[in-house]
Design a protein that fits this description.
- By secondary structure, the chain is mostly beta strands.
- It has one helix spanning 2-23; strands at residues 35-38, 42-44, 48-55, 61-68, 75-77, 81-85, 90-100, 109-116, 121-123, 127-131, 135-139, 141-143, 148-155, 162-164, 168-172, 177-187, 196-203, 208-211, 227-230, 241-242, 245-246.
- Helices cover 9% and strands 46% of the residues.
- The strands form 7 sheets. The protein has a 5-stranded mixed beta sheet, with no helix packed on it. A 5-stranded mixed beta sheet has the order 10-17-16-13-14, with no helix packed on it. Strands 1-3-6 form a 3-stranded antiparallel beta sheet, with helices on one face.
Length: 247
């Protein structure tokens, strides 16, 4: 973007110089300089906006006077660019006056730029499938022209009261069903993103049982058979079957 601005500014300077040189008559030292100012037409709050001035006689220009939104005391630069930041939105104006080495001042020129909010952007997975009582980490990804300060989380339509500095949040559901989790991000200027939502399906998983390996025994011997079961909610009973008969 910066390189594009420099190229565009160079083309403007070249065009302005060609036009001026083609139309000017012999230089009159009593004629004050002229100046034009350019910038992007759109900007964002808390982002820097750069204005560039082009003069008819840049070699003789000693300084530039920059007036931001009609201030009485201008900011002065020796170079032909001026950078500023706004903390509020709206249509903003910057005025420039060029002063040559004879202290002759140009007529002022004005450039306007529209300043708008540029909040962060956040996203999480569209959907997720988990087991009941499993610990789940849901991770968000946020982007901003500043820095992300925190994340706000909401569960099933609740308000965004859960806050994390990290980009992930830990969840455990103790019942099955379909739930939604929403997240917003907040940047270092207090701007809040639009929310993004993940649909979470929580399902029951049957327990897993493992019985001891096959064994060979003598007839009428007594044998103990051991089984181990695993389940998120705990095992409450074992149901045994011997040759098709349940106990």
């Amino acid at each position: 973007m910066k390189q594009t601005k420099i190229i565009a500014f160079g083309l403007v300077v070249a065009a302005f110089s060609v036009l001026y040189n083609c139309n000017k008559s012999p230089v009159n030292p009593d004629i004050p300089p002229s100046v034009a100012v350019f910038s992007d037409s759109l900007g964002s709050i808390y982002d820097s906006v750069t204005f560039y001035a082009v003069s008819s006689d840049s070699a003789s220009i000693r300084k530039y006077l920059w007036y931001r939104e009609g201030v009485v005391i201008p900011e002065t630069t020796e170079c032909n660019s001026y950078e500023t930041v706004w903390s509020d939105t709206g249509l903003k104006a910057v005025i420039v006056v060029a002063v040559n080495n004879k202290n002759q001042m140009s007529e002022p020129d004005t450039c306007t730029v529209k300043i708008r909010k540029n909040p962060p952007f956040v996203e999480i997975a569209d959907s997720l499938s988990v087991s009941i009582n499993d610990t789940t980490y849901l991770c968000a990804s946020a982007h901003d022209n500043g820095t992300i300060e925190k994340y706000l989380w909401a569960f099933d339509g609740s308000d965004f009261s859960d806050t994390t500095i990290k980009s992930y949040c830990r969840f455990v559901w103790n019942k099955s069903g379909v739930f939604n989790v929403a997240v917003k991000s907040v940047d270092n200027h207090g701007l809040i993103s639009a929310p993004d939502t993940c649909i979470v399906t929580v399902h029951l998983n049957p327990p897993v049982v493992v019985i001891m390996p096959d064994s060979t025994v003598n007839i009428k011997d007594t044998i103990g058979i051991t089984a181990k079961a695993h389940d998120n909610e705990g095992v409450v009973a074992y149901i045994w079957s011997k040759d098709g008969t349940h106990y």
